[in-house]
Amino acid sequence: MLIFLSFYGKNMKVLHWKKLVSCVGWTTAEELYSCSDDHQIVKWNLLTGETSQIVKLPDDIYPIDLHWFPKSLGIKKQTQAEIFVLTSSDGKFHLISKLGRVEKSVEAHSGAVLAGRWNYEGTALVTVGEDGQIKIWSKTGMLRSTLAHQGTPVYSVAWGPDSEKVLYTAGKQLIIKPLQPNAKILQWKAHDGIILKVDWNSVNDLILSAGEDCKYKVWDSYGRPLYSSQPHEHPITSVAWAPDGELFAVGSFHTLRLCDKTGWSYALEKPNTGSIFNIAWSVDGTQIAGACGNGHVVFAHVVEQRWEWKNFQVTLTKRRTMQVRNVLNDAVDLLEFRDRVIKASLNYAHLVVSTSLQCYVFSTKNWNTPLIFDLKEGTVSLILQAERHFLLVDGGGIYLYSYEGRFLSSPKFPGMRTDILNAQTVSLSNDTIAIKDKADEKIIFLFEASTGKPMGDGKFLSHKNEVLEIALDQKGLTNDRKIAFIDKNRDLYITSVKRFGKEEQIIKLGTMVHTLAWSDTCNILCGLQDTRFTVWYYPNTVYVDRDILPKTLYERDASEFSKNPHIVSFVGNQVTIRRADGSLVHISISPYPAILHEYVSSSKWEDAVRLCRFVKEQTMWACLAAMAVANQDMTTAEIAYAAIGEIDKVQYINSIKNLPSKESKMAHILMFSGNIQEAEIVLLQAGLVYQAIQININLYNWERALELAVKYKTHVDTVLAYRQKFLETFGKQETNKRYLQYAEGLQIDWEKIKAKIEMEITKEQERSSGSQPTKSTGLKH
């Protein structure tokens, strides 16, 4: 995606002030208010190109900062902001209505009030001033608390995403202070000069800072540096995040720059503006307005965004025009839209475009006749696609549609905030929607795509640490659906999304993983680990045979991707990675594992073996071994394990094949995969109580073996005999009270026990051969 800023306003009636413009703020995507040092508040209408003076402030009020009251969260129709806070040089802040009436003026600071910001819910206002104080006010302008007091002026302030913390400047330092008293304060030196502006994005939780050292920097919420720019010629006077957190804008003297969230620059413009003191993004994230030192207001529009999928490249050339290029035959199509384009996504042979009022769905086979439907709310903040359907996120909710435009579902959960969702915190597959909770970041909510209802028994997925990024696999059956996620320790985990009663295992796949992606054609997972690019050809191996997981991986050195690379897409066998400098690197992985996945999903085991023999790679054989065990094809498993030299497992598989009943075989396959409890349940349900006791004896689960023998009133002496033999081997005495209780007065007769065991085996053989189809094994079920 290459992005440029297109400036407009040539045909707009521009008011030229003699004095500088200090602040700007959008009410809707087409209407902006600006304030200047000649005490005027002016409204700009971008549709008609007209400007009008709203109010002339008293001569002693020099405006410094402006912030509109936030729109209500979770409402269907977008309402316009009706009131804004204006801070001024006279130590007051003013609550001013849309019509220009000053509703209230409040004495706030001694000296100028340098910044004022509403929190995300609109329940509180923070102001900072030359007097070094940070104050929290109620919505109506009543003082709640003085959060901090310091000796130097505070130039800028921003709320944390949850409105529980405040970020402010203190000379060259940045400080994050929670609202709760006695909570830990985070403080760090951020610049070599005074910090002039900060911004904190609620979607990506990243912080921007700009200073007189002529640099802008990106930080995470723990104060760790993620990016530092080269020094510019002049101090950086303004920075601002786009609402979705994907881009940010930087303003300086005669300079406007558009950057990616990781810091690298998409576009640099040199408008004749003087210093740009304030930058505001429109609600939909498509436009920027800048308050300029030479008395102008600069408007810019984000264009040249680019989306790629296989042989198609789509470019937003103008606000309402897209160009589609097929690189195979160089065919070009132009797509015209009635309204400006806000978001788009190209994947799974479909282009989904949201404008300010409608959604367009194009098939890559036919660009001429899109499917069009009206949106419930104009500002779509996220589009996610799966093979069968796509997801739209806006201020009102989450909506799932089929590619035919049919509304499918709208999942909801308590405390849902759609304004902070992004591609890392929401994931979509053909049958599942996964959403990371913001209130408790250890929780992932799982929903059925078709109904929007919680998956399985309604339980959410809970992890021991905060989760950073989630991703659902895209292929296979609903019952086998897996979710991979990275937690705050950068560990990668995988678990099943199907949750009925028993707690599903959450298994670690890797450490120091920074970014991940599933293939769109089969369930292959790739990720960037510390210094390696890793591909898990069959991640489900961890459920089958964890020992051979390292043999199913492909690894290569990742130092060529430099620091903080990010996986953009994984289409077919092509992985696209964006480096920290913005350049794209394409990696091709072996096509054979994907073919193996295809053969196995179609149960073509002979073809799968033939493919492995042709490729002659250990990773392929290891994947086939795990796939065969997972699908209980032990003949193929035996061949595959032999090929990777796992002789002990080949012998065990041979012993499984010789077992008399299918229940025993099934139980031992489950044991092979480490599912002891499930193996025991299978045997007990089949009435094979002795076999269930025996597997616990073999695994030295002495407590459970005795518990089963007592419960089913059989083979208590067998368990005691094996226990005694075990203790004698190690020269130990019995100390377990339960064993001592049942061993009292009991003589161990090995001849008798062996006869009983042989009788059990004979019974099982007769039962499996069908000679006694209805008769019980003589054991209590």
Automatic annotation (TrEMBL):
UniProt main location, coarse: cytoplasm
Instruction: Enumerate the residue ranges of region (Disordered).
Output: 762-781
Note the Gene3D superfamilies from the entry: 1.25.40.470, YVTN repeat-like/Quinoprotein amine dehydrogenase
Q: Which SUPFAM superfamilies match?
A: WD40 repeat-like
State the WD repeat positions. Answer: 106-138, 188-220
Task: Pinpoint the IFT80/172/WDR35 TPR domain residues.
Answer: 620-766
* IFT80 second beta-propeller domain location: 304-592
Specify whether Cytoplasm is a keyword of the entry: yes
Name of the featured protein: Intraflagellar transport protein 80 homolog
